[in-house]
Amino acid sequence: MAAEIVRERWKGKVFEMMLGREPHTVRVGGDTSLPFMHFEGTTVRPVTALEVQDVAPADWPAVLRAPFAGVLEDPAAWAKRCVELGADLVALRLAGAHPENGDADAGAVAAVARRVAEAVDVPLIVLGCGLEEKDARILPAVAEALEGRNCLLGQATMDNYKAVVAGCLAYGHGVVATSPLDINLAKQLNILITEMNLPPDRIAMDPSIGPLGYGIEYAYSIIERKRLGALSGDRMLAQPVICLVGEESWKTKETQAGDISEWGDQERRAVLWEAMTAVTLALAGGSIFVFRHPDSLTRFNRTIDALMHQQVY
Amino acid sequence: MALTGLAIYKLLPKTNCKDCGQATCLAFAMQLAAGKASLEACPHVSAEAREALGAASEPPVALVRIGREGRVLEIGNETVLFRHDKRFVHPPGIGIIVADTLDDDRLTARISAINRLSFDRLGQIHGVDLVALAYDSADPARYLRALRQVLSQTELNLGLLCPDPDVAGRALAEAEERKPFLYAADEGNLETMVDLAHRYGIALAVRGRDLAELAVLAEKAIKLGHKQLLLDSGAREPAQVLADQTQIRRLAIKKRFRPFGFPTVCLAAGEDAVLAAAVYVAKYAGVVLIDTTDPAEILPLITWRLNVYTDPQKPIAIEAKVYEVGNPGPEAPVFLTTNFSLTYFCVMGDIESARVPAFILPVDTDGTSVLTAWAAGKLTPEKIGAFLETSGIGARVNHRRLIIPGGLAAMSGKLREVIGWEIIVGPRESAAIPAFLKELQ
After folding, report:
1. What is the interface pTM, i.e. ipTM, of the complex?
2. In this structure, is residue B314 part of a structural domain?
């Protein structure tokens, strides 16, 4: 009895999204198979971003601050460092717009976003402060300041998507659509956003991942189901998935705790925590990975390099 | 080849006696066809029918046991390709490779490092499962000496990575009581290795140069009468391992291809071995072998294994009791939440990141989140009051202030009346807890 290779035939594909401006565009999505199943379709290599914040983060541990020593106070210089460290994209998190963290207004954060955009050639992701009402006020201004740069702006939720998407539509950006670990809500939000006439290939889905050890399995299965939905032809589940692995991983005690003998060296452990969160979610079908530590990005990329090798049958 | 549910149904007694746990014989037949039930569950099936059902009556992936009674590692018996289809059942064994070329002192140090690889997660201890002793020395005496050292210095289960049947036979004579697995039978040694494994009643890994050869060798081993097998396609590049693992599982489940109806063994090597190992844990490995004793690498891997093998259809509940973050004193704030583990973890993580020692009281809501529990009437003032009472929190703090999730603001008045504590309405999202705590102080 011979082993006959089983090849799945899929009719759908993940939407392909181009970010940034020529000649520095980055292609995201477009996959026609389950992740890394090269023998039955195309896996498009996942892309990476490193996170920059508009104000120096107060809660980052020393091992995370070290790679960015000297630039944490200057988002534009920080963004340049990210590109030098190998990021395909820069993800600017406007943490300083949060009322508890400076409460910067729309004009101020839009100016920061423009300075960062002018400092680097790579495409930008710009994320608000996470407070829905505030983000609805600042993101349209950011969209205007970055007009024509073809960025990815978010996070748009069920409660604030109208303002965010209006900004994206007016100034030529894509949107990060965030839903709380629920495939039906993700789909519903995609429908609402496309009803505003944003094309379906201008959306990245953010499933609100949990990190390794803290609910990652929910995100893993939801991302797998989204990929299966996309491949089966469901156009409202076919948007590329973005995973904020950095900010989620660095909340955990396993990344925050110092060197303890039972857990080993903090930096190695924390970097692996972030890298493993990303590798496993790439295996489920994630397309964009936003990291904090450059070594996590490097280790992720090496593992993805290996998984992108062709397979022999 | 797999039988359809209807074909199986024709062979069943058709009495709908329900002894198998299913409502009807047809329902049972469908479960059998899907690989989700075993023919053993039917006490009335005839011998002829049993014969005829053949492959369909066996699970698509056999259950394989490694180790002695009381410490058995069970792997296999999986029925799905995606955990969301049902669940993954038996977490893969994680084995640490130990070379017999290490001198006595370094070997002792390594075994002791392996023994220390155990971690407390939610009150349960999780560690590695196996020591895999590699016959790298080509010196039988050295291998046996190292084996004796391993046997005396660890209680963990064993793998004998020793393709030389003579040496493997001598090793098994010494390690018989541990019921190790033997790795690996290949084209050159298959018959003698099967004979050894059979004699000692242990699991035998079969290694091909590729999937095609693996199928041939596994079929031979089955014909020789050994059914405790582990499969290794010989691939070592992560992309090829992932593809082979996927093919083995697809063929076992979708095609009922008997030679691949066994758990697999994967070797992870190189500078990013632990990340490759994480891929293999998610994609179908029965045993993952890796060459590291660094807790900074093994802790994430073991955590990932735990996550992937949770039951996706069941909200995970944690025990409802008082949990401490940091070292809370009698003044420390008390947070109320539910015992859905994801909810609890979010609250715990956010309190931790605020670096404020606190108590957390997760009410037993059958593992549902705050709003779900509240909507379903599982989070009532009476229930909270009873939990405060039995938890003993009153004796551990010198105040009577309870912080409740923002989503429960509407019940704060009633709650105050029922429990007699001051109620502080916390944020709706746990991510806002650090800011909330800052303000509270």
Report:
1. 0.97
2. no
